Every structure is written in structure tokens, then in C-alpha cells.
Amino acid sequence: MKRPVLSFLTSVTLALSLGATAPAALAATPPDTLIQAWAIDDVITLDPAEVFEFSASEVLGNAYQGLVGYDVEDVSDIFGVIAESWEVSEDGKTFTFTIRPGMTFASGNPITADDAVFTLQRVIKLDKSPSFILTQFGFSPDNVDQMIRKTGDMTFEFEMDQAYAPTLVLYCLTATVGFIVDEELVMSHEEDGDFGYGWLKTNYAGSGAFSIREWRANEVIVLERNDAYGGEAPPMARAIYRHIPETSTQRLLLEAGDIDIARNVGAEEIDALTDNPDIVIESGVKGSIYYLGLNQKNDMLAKPEVRQAMKMLVDYATIADTIMKGKVNVHQAFLPVGFLGALEDTPFSLDVEQAKALLEQAGVPDGFSVTMDTRNTPEITSMAQAIQQTMAMAGIEMELIPGDGQQTLTKYRARNHDIYIGRWGPDYQDPHTNADTFARNPDNGDDAASKPLAWRNAWDIPEMTAEADAAVLESDADARAQMYLELQREHQETSPFVIMFQEIEVLARRANVDGFIIGPSFNDNSFKQVTKE
Amino acid sequence: MSGTSAPGGVVGAGDRPARRRPAWLDRIAALFGTLAVTLFGLLLVTFLIGRVVPVDPVLAVVGDRASQSTYDAAYIELGLDQTLFEQFRRYTARALSGDFGESLLTKRPILDDIRRAFPATLELATVAILIGTLVGVPLGVWAAVRQGTLVDQVVRVVGLVGYSAPIFWLGLLGLLLFYAKWGLVAGPGRIDIAYEYSFTPITGLLLIDTAVQGQWAAFRNVVSHLALPACLLGYFSLAYIARMTRSFMLAELGQEYIDAARIKGVSERRIVWVHALRNAAVPLVTVIALSYASLLEGSVLTETVFAWPGLGLYLTNSLLNADMNAVLGCTLLIGVIFVGLNLLSDLLYTLLDPRVRRGS
Predict the structure, then answer these.
(1) How many angstroms away from the CA of B231 is the closest CA of chain A?
(2) Measured in whole angstroms, how far is the alpha carbon of residue A43 from the centre of its chain?
(3) Percent of chain A with pLDDT over 70
(4) How far apart are CA A175 and CA B222, in angstroms?
(5) Is B309 on the interface with A (CB under 8 A)?
(6) Which of A277, B81, B252, B356 is the most exposed, having the fewest neighbouring CB atoms within 10 Å of its CB?
(7) Tens digits of residue pLDDT in B118-146
(8) What is the pLDDT of residue B357?
(9) Which residues touch A5 (CB under 8 Å, ≥6 apart)?
(10) pTM over the 0.90 mark
(11) How far is CA B32 from CA A353, B2, B359, in A?
């Protein structure tokens, strides 16, 4: 009886006294299989018409193909994937797409115009979360059969209500919602006119480099090489995501060689893994932006001087370098770097004296009290605490109200907050995605139909909304970029948003695993060309 | 229970044997009554809490970006346009017919989800409670017999550490040593990917599934994955069981019948392990049953550290996403487990305690 307990005690004592011991022999992963550890509990569906979650987007990005794509190194280079070519009509309202001949789905069915038309109409008719990416061009379940129409076996037309900037249209089609599904396969599983929605939630009907073999919620996603794929065959025969919620557990698995890539690495893990010769830390700039939203319903925060003062009471550099350990870059405009027309100026830095002077001008020389709703993730919490300290230097007493994601978001969307510290990721690669939310507020009323970030902070901006709307219709890319630059400059100076950082995605991989591409959005992350030595 | 059995005992003192059956039936009926009331109460409270929580369930379903029309459609689909009473009535009616609905998020039937998550927890909890009981009871007895000696002190410290050290921390430390440093056990998860498809899942209990199909390599892998979290949770319940055993045993060892047995010359070993332990076992059964029940709820922290796809993780995840159908389903399951194990310990009571047996 005494043995188990005593041996446990002995081992703990031993461990504590020995400190570092030699690691156990490596359990290598199979050479033709890529195994990644990631928190994949956000996956709720695998249907391209519904997917909006980070991890599911990445899975679809490797398993499906859209009509068009872009170069992740230079997103202005847009090329055809399933579409071989396209033409825009003279009035700018209609795109005519021609499908590349000879392509097939993983099922063996040929890809034709029928599949493309079916996919796009299906998105509009199902009307799930990401459908707005396409409905913004004037489609509705009632008119979509007329507006998106087949004109030949391999051609179809895409007619919009206005002449939108062609890049906007094309970028929207690169989003997961535009990934083409296999009509024949999906419709063979249709039930009660659901367009195969019930089936596709957990199944696969694509044509990408990998096919999805299995998804077990909170456990595993298994992909296999799709031999019918038209592009270059991926070196890996299988790719597996294991759900490992805890970052330190991911690190242990990676060091032991039981996984090839750890996808969630916190600041602590980055520190610990940097010196390990078997591990390589990689990073890539993502589109997400961290910001503070100052609710204009709060009289204090509505004062322009107070808003400006707050922009000078954040220690941007320290947070980026010390607290976030390189997981963010300082960035102060609403378009992330990498987007058309992104403004890279960073005019604000911690300046307590100037902030105090501004507060005095606003008539609150001694500061004031305010609350900030803070999502209880490690990143947001530590940022919020740092901001709380620097705000206090100018007498602004900031109380942090912690809550989980859904809770803080519910309050934010009801405009019941003072300050909200948030993270916003673009929905597609076009500048309009962020302009639409940070710089547009068509109706500031409490029962407005759309609730962009400007609305949530009760920032009434009819003129800026009109400017943002004009930029959507500008067909010349350079002129359009110029419009967005001006919009951001004005926004930077006047808006109730303290835009602080742009996210950097960091992963840790074993040194023998090469070729993982970190793209600007999650569906650009690619393991199609991953090799193992 | 005594309320229903006592009158039966007095009236039907043996001359009318036909009466015994109804009394027995009465007891069963009362039990089911208790079960029904408990479950209904649980359902009502959970339902109300779910509605009071300041989280918009529609938001959890459609996300932050959806258009108003998408939002409205989901709102109606979830039945949130109905009154609270109507929502509850609908849910209860469906639950009564065995339909626990679908997850709001994934649209998968709740029963399927539970059927997948629960075996993982069941397997872990069962091995853990076995460890806890088989080690904890003798340890407690031993400490009681050697009360005040070094052995007793050590057992108490071990118990205290097990009871108060954060299981999260112990889990990580265990992984760091036994998995990462010494490679004695397999890492997080239930089974290595390599063995994943070497057998067909039947019960979801991997120990049984692999053993029945003779996949011994996979079986060993499952044991290796199970060892650390099971020992950890086992240690956790061991600590409690040993402490309780010790105090129950001390109470028994101070009784007069023990002195009487000693005077009669019964061996010390027999006095401790037969006479005293048998009597201490009666309350101990309840302690073990309740420990088992709380293990079966799923330990969120252990499941997080060990990436164990069990009930605790599933329930927490559902709760954070305001997926009330899933939360209600799990709550009911846990309620049934608690009531069931209570019932089981009552039955064992009857077997172990002659007074209760005779009384009924």
C-alpha cells in the first residue's frame, strides 16, 4: 500500500531536486503525416456557406477552392483558380466568369458552371452568418436566381445592383463563403429543401489539395491528400489537427516530438522555446486589429480632447515588445498593413504631459472614472492592465470589468459599455471590410438594422459614411487607395477608436517541418507544401 | 424511505405476506418520485439560470458579423420569440419524450454529443475511483490504527496535499516529469493517432473496445494515456477517502465492542479489518459514491490539461457559448448519475448494515 504514495513522493522530490534531466527518447510523428496541436473548439461547422471561425477557415482553405485567389505575398495579384477568366460588363455591374475546363471535385464529379451558380445561390438562400459578404452586392433569396445565372456549361453571369469596385467583388469571392461545392454530391444529401446543409456541416464536397475525412468536435480533424486535386500534389498524405486547449500542454507535446506544429503559443512559450535547437518559431502578420472603443453615449468620452488624450495614454511600444512578446505590431489606423491603402503612420505614443494638457482643455484636469469591459483571455487582460496603469498617470481611473467573450460582446452590441477593448479581424481581403465597420454608421438610432463598430460606440458620422460609400464604387485602384488613406487620416484624428496593434500569428514547429505558409487571413494559412525531413 | 416502510412493517407483521409486495412497490414508486422531482427541479433552475445569464444566445449561434436578417431568422429558430413559460414547456415536453434537442451551435443531437463525451469521462472516473478506493481505504485504516505516529502524520499530509494542491498544477507537473522528461507515460489525449483506426469503437470505453477486439498494442497505448490523469484524479479522491476512512475508523475503534473483542482474544488484524472496518464501511460507501459522482461530472481542469474530450470540457464549452440545450442535457445526465449513485449506496447500506436490513 505504501508503495504508490511513497514512490510518487520520491519522484516529485527527485524532480524538484534534479531540476533539468535529459528528455525522453523522441516519439517522432509519421513521415507522411502533419500533426498540429490547436484549440479547435471554435469549429461549429464545415459548410463553406456558414464557416466563419478561424480554425475552420484554415481547414477549408486547404480543402476547397474558390473561383479566384490572390498571392499571399502580394495580395494585389489576383488570379483565377476555378475560374479561368472573367470579364466585367461596360456598366460595371455584371461579371462573366468562365470555368477552367477539366477540373474535378474529390468525388470525381466535373466542376462546371452549375456548381459555381449553385454554390453562390446556396449561400444567399441559406443566409448564414457570412452571407453578408455576398448579399452586400444586392442579392436576396428572391432575386438571386435571376442575378446569378448560368449562360453556358462553363460560363455564368454575376449581376450586381451597382458598379462596385472590381477588386472588392473579387476579394469577396476569395473568402470561404465563395468556395465552390460539389452540387451533385451535396444535393444527393438534401433533406427538406435544406440544400444539403445538415449533411455538409460535418462532411466534405470540395476540390482542394486535401479532403476532409473526419471531424470530431473538441477532438480531432483529419484531412487526406485529394488525388483528384488539379494543382501540385501535396507532399503530406495526411494532415491532422488535434484539439489541445492548453498552451503549455502543446509545448510539451512539441518538445517531445508528438506533434509537428504547436499553433497556440503564448508569450511564456515563446520565451521557453526560443533556445531549443529542435524548435523554430515562425510568425506572419495577420489582419486582426486590437483597439479601444470609446462609447460616445458617455458624456466624458464624447469630448474630443478626452478622446485624443486617451490615444496618448497607451504605452504602445512596451505592450508590443514586453507584454505581447512580438505577437503584435504597433498599428494605429483601421486598415491593417497588407491591405490596399493601409496607412502605416503611428502618430501616437505615451505622452502623459500632453494628455494632461488635453484633459485640462476638456475641463477635467483631475481626470475621471470610467469602466472597461475586458474579455478574459490572457492577451486582452494583460493589455488592459497595462492600459489601466498608464491611464492612471493622467488621473483617469479605469475599472476593468472582466467577462467571457459572449458576455462582453452582448454588452458591447447593446451599447451599454463605457470602453470596450476589442479585437477585429477583417472578413475578406478588401479595405471595405474594415471601413464598413470602423468608418460607416448609416443609422445611429438604437434600433438600427446594422450594428457596425461605429454604431456600437454611438459615433454619428454621416459625412464619413458617405466618403466610405464613395470608395466602394471607385473602379481605379490607385484612386481608391488614395481615398482610403485620407479616410484613415481623418479617422485617426477624430474617431473614438484608440487603434493600437495589428496581430502577428506565431507558431512553433519542429525544425524538420518546412513549408507551412502563414497568410494574411486564416484561410490563407497553407500546409499544402509542407515537407518533413 | 423509512416513512414508507415503517407502517408496512407494523401492520403487516408477517401474518399477511401479500401486503409485502405493495410496500416494496411503494418504495420503488417513492424513489422514482424523488428522481422525477429532483430532475424537474434541476431542469427548472438550469433553464432559468440560462435565461438570466447576460449572454445573447443568438450571438453565440450566428456570430458577431451576421446581418440583421440572419440574426432574426436564428432568433425565431431558437424559439426565443416565445414566452419564457412556453419555451420551458416545449423543452420539458420534448425532454420527456427522450428528445434533448440539438446543440444550438452545431445542430448535432445533444444525445449524440453526450454519447461521445461521456464514455471518456466514465472511463477516467472509474479507473480513478478504483485507485482512490483501493489505495485510500487501506491507507486510512492504517493511519487510524497508528494514530499519532509518523505514519499517521505522513498519510495526513499526503491527504492534505492531494486535497488542496490545484489539480491543474499537479497535472502539468505530472506531464512535465512522467511524459516529457522520463517518457514513462503517453502524452495528452486518449490514444495515439497511429492506433486511432486500428479498432472499431463500440462502447466508447477504449479499454474495453481495444480489449474485446484483441488489439493489445492499442490497449497498452490507451493504458499509457490513461495512467497519468487517472492516477491524478485517483490521488485526489484517495486523499478524501483516506481522511474519511481514518475518522470513521477512529470512531469505531473507540467503541466498547472492540474492547470486548480484544478481551475475547480476537487477533488485532481481525479486529481492525473485519470488525471495525465492516462498521466503518457503512458511511464510507456514501463517501465513495459521492466522490465517484463528482468525478463523473467531468473535471474541467484535468480534461483541459490532458486534452481529454470528456463531459467537463463539453459542458464548459457549451456554457460559455450559451448553448442551453447542451447544458440542460448534461445537467440532467449528471442529476441522474447523482440520484442513481445515491440509490446504489442506499442499497449497499442495506446489504452492509444488518440493522437497516432488519428494519425494512
Answers:
(1) 10
(2) 14
(3) 95
(4) 41
(5) yes
(6) A277
(7) 999 999 999 999 999 999 999 999 999 98
(8) 63
(9) B135, B139, B158
(10) no
(11) 72, 16, 21
